[in-house]
């Protein structure tokens, strides 16, 4: 039991950190949505420029694809991730089907985020700061969970595969950076001067 707790500590901590960041981003987007409903002609606090803002995303149909504001999904889903993170740190043993459902949920979140990234860059031509915060934690959460489901025996019983996945976990940060670079490249190719805007915000 102790060995299992030590082995998965990093993953558990990441789930907690990611859930807190993701939940806060969803909360902020929810607040901004309420503001827009009360002030249709107003600008949200996350409005930086024509290309970096939350307003256009929240007011679009993509921002309420299931009939309600997308951030509401984040407010509930990230709580599940937080609970799993605490459970991992506590070395709670879940059956394979439970981990499988969690993995399916994370994969669904990743697919949804990929779709939102495409919609934001190519359809809406804007980058939402709080949306990007959500993207930033969802991507590594998916990558880490995919590797974890192999090493904890959910996706395979092969001991060799589990050992390889355990060693592969250290490469998740690098893989995450690569995915970030792809998203930035997509924004640049789409004509969104992301780097210039970010530099302007910092300096």
TrEMBL record:
Record keyword Transmembrane helix present: yes
Topology relative to the membrane:
Multi-pass membrane protein
Compartment(s): Membrane
Q: Which domain of life is it from?
A: Bacteria
What's a Pfam family this protein contains? VKOR
- Mark the transmembrane ranges: 12-31, 72-92, 99-118, 124-147, 168-191
The protein depicted here goes by the name PROBABLE CONSERVED INTEGRAL MEMBRANE PROTEIN
Which terms in the Gene Ontology molecular function aspect does this entry carry? oxidoreductase activity; quinone binding
Mostly located where? Answer: membrane
**What keywords are annotated for this sequence in UniProt?**
Disulfide bond, Membrane, Oxidoreductase, Quinone, Redox-active center, Transmembrane, Transmembrane helix
Q: Which residues form the Vitamin K epoxide reductase domain?
A: 8-149
- Renumbered to this chain, the signal peptide range is none
Question: Record's family?
Answer: Belongs to the VKOR family.
What is the scientific name of the source organism? Microbacterium esteraromaticum
Keyword hit for Translocase: no
- A GO CC annotation given for this chain: membrane
Write down the InterPro entries for this protein, in alphabetical order.
VKOR (IPR012932), VKOR_Actinobacteria (IPR041714), VKOR_sf (IPR038354)
């Amino acid at each position: 039991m102790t060995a299992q707790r030590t082995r998965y500590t990093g993953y558990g901590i990441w789930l907690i950190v990611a859930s807190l960041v993701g939940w806060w981003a969803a909360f902020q987007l929810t607040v901004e949505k309420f503001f827009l409903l009360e002030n249709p002609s107003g600008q949200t606090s996350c409005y930086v420029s024509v290309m970096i803002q939350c307003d256009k995303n929240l007011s679009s149909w993509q921002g309420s694809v299931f009939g309600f504001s997308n951030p509401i999904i984040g407010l509930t889903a990230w709580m599940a991730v937080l609970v799993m993170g605490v459970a991992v740190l506590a070395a709670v043993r879940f059956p394979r089907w439970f981990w499988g459902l969690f993995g399916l949920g994370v994969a669904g979140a990743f697919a949804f985020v990929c779709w939102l990234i495409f919609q934001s860059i190519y359809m809406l031509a804007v980058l939402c700061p709080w949306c990007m915060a959500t993207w930033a934690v969802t991507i590594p959460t998916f990558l880490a969970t995919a590797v974890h489901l192999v090493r904890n025996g959910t996706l395979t019983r092969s001991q060799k595969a589990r050992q390889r996945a355990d060693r592969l976990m250290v490469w998740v940060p690098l893989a995450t950076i690569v995915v970030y670079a792809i998203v930035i490249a997509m924004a640049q190719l789409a004509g969104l001067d992301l780097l210039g805007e970010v530099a302007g915000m910092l300096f």
